[in-house]
From TrEMBL:
Belongs to the NAD(P)-dependent epimerase/dehydratase family. GDP-mannose 4,6-dehydratase subfamily. Pfam families: GDP_Man_Dehyd (PF16363). This is GDP-mannose 4,6-dehydratase. The keyword Secreted does not apply. Residues 19-183, 184-260 form the NAD(P)-binding domain. Its EC number is 4.2.1.47.
Length: 286
């Protein structure tokens, strides 16, 4: 028996629909690539900004006017605006929701704790409530919700940290992530970790050593950037994810460092072209 599918607005009627908050971040862009490769239609919520902040997804963005090609679409919304969340959930009717958005700079969370909690903690609650109201109004069932956690939630709890390890957050950001976690009635939790620990100094040695430099000649320690409270030792136990999901890390520490350095070198080359052409000041930050 042959099966047929009908394309509506560039999306096959049989494809799943995903809604992603934080789509312009690192995890959001990788998740978008994965879902598109699986045939999903992906919708991302982005905040209005005077600066372009879609660099990570520009390579997969297609003008929505090309309806027969665009399977990723962006919409303006904010986790601090409950009405926008409800409106887009009702409009998009997603099968899966991935909440990756956050004010995720830990040090900055000490300077703007109220805003951090409003976005990370209460924002997650707004999204859950919008989904609950949508399900109540439409009778839809089986909508899946994913809440991104953080190793910062474990804080000062000694390693290894697994799904049943008590939380001991040490920052407004971490405390907000814990709140967002507990807002879910019956979450199934997974710790994803390489089960390795590496210091910042090890990272510097590998990164600078990869290009033949001694990091001590180029790095200064400025105590102004220290956090009021530090997280000393995080080392995840991913036994459950490996057994239940069949997950295991594909990229090791040294390989990851090399990938990051290679990317920065390519970025520096592109910036040099702009500097040489007079389009960018040599001291200008990208």
């Amino acid at each position: 028996m042959a099966t047929t599918t009908t394309a509506v607005n560039g999306v096959e009627s049989g494809s799943k629909v995903a809604l992603i908050t934080g789509i312009t971040g690192q995890d959001g862009s990788y998740l978008t690539e994965l879902l598109l490769s699986k045939g999903y239609s992906v919708h991302g919520l982005i905040r209005r900004s005077s600066n372009f902040n879609t660099q990570r997804i520009n390579h997969i963005y297609i003008d929505p006017h090309n309806a027969h090609k665009a399977r990723m679409k962006l919409h303006y919304a904010d986790l601090t605006d409950a009405s926008s969340l409800r409106r887009w959930i009702d409009t998009i009717a997603p099968d899966e929701i991935y909440n990756l958005a956050a004010q995720s700079h830990v040090a900055v969370s000490f300077e703007i704790p109220d805003y951090t909690a409003d976005v990370v903690a209460t924002g997650s609650l707004r999204l859950l409530e919008a989904l609950r109201s949508h399900i109540s109004a439409t009778g839809r069932k089986g909508v899946k919700y994913y809440q991104a956690g953080s190793s910062e939630m474990f804080g000062s709890t000694p390693p290894p940290q697994a799904e049943d390890t008590p939380f001991h957050p040490r920052s407004p950001y971490a405390a907000s992530k814990v709140a967002a976690h507990w807002y879910q009635e019956k979450p199934d939790d997974y710790v994803v970790a390489t089960e390795e620990s590496h210091t910042v100094e090890e990272f510097l040695e590998k990164a600078f050593g990869y290009v033949g430099l001694n990091w001590k000649d180029h790095v200064e320690i400025d105590k102004r950037y220290f956090r009021p409270t530090e997280v000393d030792n995080l080392k995840g136990d991913s036994t459950k994810a490996r057994k239940v999901l069949g997950w295991k890390p594909k990229v090791g520490f040294e390989q990851l460092v090399k990938m990051m350095v290679d990317e920065d070198i390519e970025l520096a080359k592109r910036e040099k072209v702009l500097v040489d052409a007079g389009y960018m000041d040599a001291q200008q930050q990208p």
